[in-house]
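User: My collaborator sent over this chain with a note saying "see what the structure looks like." That's all I know about it. Can you take a look?
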Amino acid sequence: MVVDPGDAAPVIEFLNEHQLTLSAVLITHHHPDHTGGIKTLSDTFPDLSVFGPHNPKIRGITDSLQHQERCFINDLSLQFTVMAAPGHTLDHIMYYTEGLLFCGDTLFSAGCGRLFEGTPEQMTATLNSITALPADTMIYCTHEYTLANIEFALAVEPQNPSLLEYKDWVTHQRNNDKPSLPTSLQTQLHINPFLRLHQSDVKGYAETLTKSTLTQSVEVFAALRSAKDRF
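Assistant: Without extra context I'll predict from the sequence alone. Here is the result:
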């Protein structure tokens, strides 16, 4: 199974190297860096199941899914629950099964997705749905943006000891050409400013930006996201 194949070539190369057959593709949203490989993979594997959101922009979806629907990958004995995740895009969905979440471009390590179509209210609600999951859930996002996200997170919380320790670990990983992903939800609750909107330092940073008292978490989120866009 592959999630959000922007390019079919590395997927096919991996399958051939490990003598595997592709049973299913999971798509989280319509952006081409998440969907670009669908056609070639479907041509290569004619019986391929391609799961994704209800969006006619995405060519090649065989099974369209909505919030709370179940997604079954029979060949792998896997079952996912679909979570609507508007914010980065309006059609964005996530796939959850006990112990892991494929969240696309909604949540990144130490960051979150840019709001291309959704509103701060939608994204805040989506992030709240993630924080409601068990803390030991492993978060599989689609981009290795961690070091850049950490720099912004440190601007928000420069004295956060968990974040400083995490930066050292991620730097070591990347210097050795290893990914920082997946990450646990528990880790993100300690280091990700977009999941820490009620923390005094995070709220204070947002209020410094807006020069006003912020009483709602969505206001804090909006200020942070706008600052990250310009960072």
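A starting point for your reply to your collaborator: The first helix runs from residue 8 to 18.
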